[in-house]
Amino acid sequence: MKSLRTALHRIAALFTKTRAERDLDAEMQAHLALHIEDNLRAGMSPQQARREALTKLGGLEQTKESVRERRNLPWLESLLQDLRFGARTLRRSPGFTLVAVLTLALGVGANTAIFSVVNAILLHPLPYPNADRLAIIWSAWGKESRGPASGPELIQLRQRSRSFEEIAGIWVTSGAITGNAEPEQVRVGRVTANFLPLLVEKPQLGRLFATGEDRSGSPPQAILTDGLWRRQFGANPGIVGQIARLNGNNFTVVGVLPRDFQLLFPNGSSVPPDVQIFVPFLSDLENESRDQGYIRMIGRLRRGVTPMQAQAEAESIAAQLRSEFKDFSEQGLHLTVLLLQGDDVSAVRPAILSLFAAVGLVLLIACANVTNLLLSRTASRRREVALRSALGANRNRIVRQLLTESVLLGCLGGVAALGIGWISLQAMLSLEPAGIVRLIAVRLDASVLIFTFVLSVITAVLFGLAPALSAAREDLIEVVKEGGRSATPRNRYFRQLLIVGEVSLGFMLLAGTGLMVRTFISLLRVDPGFQSENALTFQLAFPGSRYRSVDSVNNFLKVFTAKLAALPGTQSVGGVSHLPLDEGLPNWYSYYWPEGAPVEQQNTVMADHRSTLPGYFRSIGATLLAGREFVETDDAVHTHVAIVDDTLAEQTWPLQNPIGKKLSVEDSPAGVYQFIREQVVVIGVVRHIQSHSLTSKGRGQIYLPFALAPRPQVSFVVRTTAPISTFAAYVSNEVKLLDKDLPVSNLRPQQEFVDTARAQTRFVTVLMAALAIVALLLAGIGIYGVTSYSVAQRKDEFAIRLAFGARSADIRGLVLRQSVWPVILGIVIGLPLAVALTPMLAGLLYGVRPGDPLTLILISAFLATVGVVASYLPARRVTRTDPMVTLRYD
């Protein structure tokens, strides 16, 4: 209780400090007067009486300080005092403060921006309930390790698994919403009834699907996303229970999903984030074909079950299915279980972590720069520090004061860093990198603010510790003898070592940037197998309720393509089921084998299958290497034919002419998705088209006539000399004339798909280049600053040399020799570090190898040039000054 009263009394004393100081001064003066009076009565002179009185009291200020420590909270009082003194000191040196704060703001701000991305994408859980227990289940068969599942496979896994609470599935296709506003083509998620409950706690309106509502015979129902509800239904709060017409069929709306709902599935899953309407499968999945995989499975692990345990069980179930069912045995079925959180970001994790490492290097360079600034400033304050030591300040007190100034500087830099971090973040968002869907969720939230504050304080201590300890070690006698005009050799060497560190760190960052720049240049030179210039693309989806037969779709396509061909500027018209580099629809791939292949080779190799219209290869700008393109008579009535790419032809018939050869493929001449296996005759060979990526060749490709493999949607390609915007209006009008309820979607130049394929590499390259420029600027400033300070300290020496006849070139050469060696040493150290670390970028590179000699040589030469220029400028300045003026004023 007593200690509590004492603490409260000391806290209260902080608010009555002025009065307390006045009372303390009066009391000390009274004590002093009494002692002086006693000494005078003892026969001392007035001067001796006062001196003896002060000695007895132990010094007025020392005694006052002792009283203050007993009266107040000494550590808090001392801290406030240090802060006030530090603020005054920084205010007296605005130039130094501005440079230091901006340097720190660049380093910490860049880290703030990148950490906000790391935090949102890698650290924050997915925005789903129990996200840490959600897993995606991949089917692996043949050489395909990340494939979809069939309906029977999903049902069997659900029935046999004990590791999962729920296992659900989704298949994404397209459809047309009509009957409300303008017709709109939308992405449709066909799901099991338990799919959405895994990802949504509750809808904003209505309900989710109930158990059993995905079975055949159940009433058609639909759940809308918030965006579709607002666009097509005017955000009607009474939408639940109303009818939505999808593909000409009526679906009862039972719910609307939350506004921020988004599907976040891994790349390659064919589940895009912008699915706009969900409907149940309305089929008995267990009775479907076991060899038709199209469903993506996710599940929620039971509490306490690890992914490794779930993987072991899934593989055991796959072995059971292979032993019990011939279809699964022929496919070589295996199952892979991966946490959704990790698999979702697996493709972008290397890029984000590489950027985070790069901003860490920038921060270290910024710290080295500010440390150099503080060392130079501390050298100019040597007499001040010596004087404080002479007046009784101990080493710890001096170190604490200088560290307080550094922390204050760090806090100012942290505040400025928030502004730079926000600007940097907006610049990153504007790049819109493909594959980083969750970038939209990136923001400067509380965790990012805490990160910035902690990083600023740690950085402040890091760059302030060396100068503070250096100042506290100064010898008072030596400082007085030197007159405070020169720094100690120890400090000079330490500043040069900091330059070595800056250059070596900058070398590593520039090496990574150089490799990314060369990768992006390689991407720009990639031949995708088609010509994207002057090609307009758009998509039509044919609802089965109105286009019930293959002939009805074919008749529409013939009339429509004829109208498009007659439009001004049209050079050619074609269509395909899956546009190159458009990952918006589930990929279609299946086994194939040549005529006469033995049974053991018949389910081993897959190819991408594409349904095409006549004129497609000419319109997309593909190269026909042999044979001919499709014509109108390539249909189900005549000989069934196919065109293959050169990759498949070389693998299947090496050193042979593939024209006239027969292939076993899956097509569906009777209707959409009514697959059968039959022999087709190869009539042409085209150069391989980069369908999924610019950097990966992928599978071989088989092209079938639309009449043999009809699909519910067609992506048209029109090569035109007319402006893209003008031709787009023509297309919309022509479609409306033929079918007013048939929406046109994804109307865009083919070049946009190519740009999107380059977007992630462009994102990483631009950011690393920006960071490299900042690092190079900081390193250049650091070299210039250290050289300028060294030259300023030796200006008398140089003036005397010049006065005695030394040439200016000799002085510049002397400065350069002494200033450039830390740069050369930094390059020598940075080179092996870059060779050792650049393999971490291997997954991001294309067309260039980690540790590429040409890149490293160019960077070495560039950094050496920057070092020479930064050292030459101060050397030239000192030789252009009249030595007589220097000596006269010094």
Give keywords.
27 helices, 890 residues, alpha+beta, 16% strand, 6-stranded mixed barrel, 8-stranded mixed sheet, elongated, 53% helix
Protein described:
There is one protein chain. This protein is α+β, with helices and mostly antiparallel strands and 890 residues long. It contains 27 helices and 23 strands. The strands form three sheets. Strands 14, 15, 16, 17, 18, 19, 20 and 21 form an eight-stranded mixed sheet that branches. β19 and β20 form a beta hairpin. α6 packs across α15, α13 (349-380) runs parallel beside α23 and α25 (808-837) runs antiparallel to α26 (853-879).
The number of distinct helices, counting runs of at least 4 residues, comes to 27
Distance, first to last CA? 64 Å
Q: Provide the β-strand percentage band.
A: 15-25%
Count of DSSP strands:
23
Shape: elongated
Average of pLDDT: 82
Which class of secondary structure composition applies to the elements? alpha+beta
Q: Detail the poorly predicted runs.
A: none
Query: How many individual domains?
Result: 4
Largest sheet report: 8 strands, mixed
Radius of gyration, rounded?
38 Å
Helix content: 40-55%
